[in-house]
Amino acid sequence: MQRLYTNCRLPLSGQTAFAVENGRFSTPRPRCGDVTDLQGAFVLPAFLDAHSHLLAYALSLLQADGARCTAANDLIAAAERFAREEELSPHALVTVKNVDALPEGDALDDCPRPLHIQHPSGHAGAFNAAAARLLGLPRSGIFREAQYLAATRRVPMPAPEAAARAFARARTDYLSRGTVLAQEGYLSRELFPLCETLLQTPSALPVVAYCAADDYDEARRRFAPLAAHGLSVGGIKIFLDGSPQLKTAFLRRPYRTGGQGEATMTERETAEACRFAAARGAQLLAHCNGDGAIERFLNALEGLSAAERRAIRPVVIHAQLMGDDQLDRAARLGAVPSFFPAHIKYWGETHISNLGRARAARISPAKSALLRGIPFTLHQDTPVCPPSPLEAVSCAVARRTQSGRRFACQAIDVREALEAVTRNVAAQYGFADRGAIRPGYRADFIVLDDDPFACPPEALASLRAAAVYRDGECVFRA
Question: What secondary structure letter does DSSP report for 478?
């Protein structure tokens, strides 16, 4: 039976009513069997997650928060507070997340509890002496990039019961913010057993996972039985550099203090990864923050045929320092840039220090992409930032740093930003029937508590979903 929704406002299409039948939007018929009056509410297509790490976010809910810590003693106190709340043993390792200023030297080595201190970017962290002994690390102190990622693989997984509770909270958080398809942007082999455990039952929030090339074939085989439970392996993820706030993003021109960052893959390795994905018809996501890393990825794409590039549907993840010349190449090569505009809000001042005002001001160049007709997407890279597509929209429109400086040259309007978290993400995934409220499309939509076009740009992030629907069924209600 068709359900008709009336007395609503659909700002992306200008309509005031729509209909749903058999899980899809349909053309309203004169005599509809079921009518719902939305009392003037605003309705948007549901959000699709362009890039985040759902499992990592769930695990982050089992970590202490060090965002307000300024000294080693603050970090120890935050860890002990968390340990008491969670009833952990005195020898259990505690991870303290969101720490911008990592403790230098042996500042934490006198603490008998094993401590793992994590930078918000996920590209650096510190381990004290107790943690180094527990994990078999060669030393304590700060680790960055590849060394840090290797060290984190030794951190023990939480107990299954705690992980299940955290995963349920994470899924609810994504749904409550209007997201009906989540991404696990890097499903490492170490997470395979946990993933199997957490997805033994069907979920209201489907997840698309991306793996390292070496793990892709195994992941496809191993997780095929979980497709009915909402997990699919979408493709391959590669990392070509680090992060701009840590000055490890790989640049074509040096940072203000010197150095061009770190390239984590050679030209040859990047080309091999592209050919590997093409041979399997697997989508390829490439983490590239700096324009040097982006150049290396585009060079590798040039080595593929047009048919191979269409098969891998390449995505430049973050693309923060993408040059106009590189946007032109990306358009020709069919590569989708997925921008991370929340960097302006959280680390804009750091980027000015590291890059200078001119380069910092055009970070996440959405306007330049728009002028070229490139269907870019926006993401939050959760757990780096909250899983809020509307915060990504807010940051792309406002482009303000924490001190209030505005990077206006690449600002876009609300409509353009909303399309970058709905219709354009559907295209990024290759979905032909999602991302819009249109007859024949899947009935995924959000009922908002306010008008996104009437809010000040900075207030967009605080809008809330009154209800969220997937395939025409309500999966979240405030």
Answer: -
Does residue 304 sit in the same domain as residue 277?
yes
Shared-domain flag, residues 91 and 231: no
Same domain, 299 and 165: yes
- Report yes or no: 282 and 220 within 8 Å, Cβ to Cβ: no
Claim to verify: residue 202 and residue 73 sit in the same structural domain = no
Q: Would residue 79 count as lying in a domain?
A: yes
> Is 453 domain-assigned?
no
**1 vs 26: CA distance, rounded Å:** 11
pLDDT band at 310 (very low <50, low <70, confident <90, very high): very high
Q: How far apart are CA 350 and CA 244, in angstroms?
A: 9
pLDDT at 13: 81
∠ CA 338-97-128, nearest 5°, is 130
Other CB atoms within a 10 A radius of the CB of residue 446 amount to 26
Residues 141 and 178 in one domain: no
What is the residue whose two structure tokens read 């585009």? Answer: 298
248 is in which domain, residue-wise?
160-435
Query: For 89-141, how does the pLDDT look when each residue is reduced to its tens digit (9 = 90+)?
Result: 999 999 999 999 999 889 999 999 999 999 999 999 999 999 999 999 999 99
3-state secondary structure of 310: helix
Structure tokens given for 158: 């939480």
Domain contains 56: no
Cα distances (Å, whole numbers) of residue 134 to 53, 129, 131, 138, 154: 26, 9, 5, 11, 9
Q: Does residue 36 lie within any of the structural domains? A: no
Same domain as 344, residue 300:
yes
Answer yes or no: do 353 and 381 share one domain: yes
Q: Pick the closest to residue 24 from 472, 473, 425 (CA basis).
A: 472
CA distances in angstroms from 144 to 125, 128, 150, 183, 340, listed in the order given: 7, 15, 10, 25, 21
164 and 116, same domain (yes or no): no
The model's confidence at residue 199, banded by pLDDT at 50, 70 and 90, is confident
pTM of the model: 0.94
Helix (H, G, I), strand (E, B) or coil at 255: coil
Q: How far apart are CA 235 and CA 281, in angstroms?
A: 9
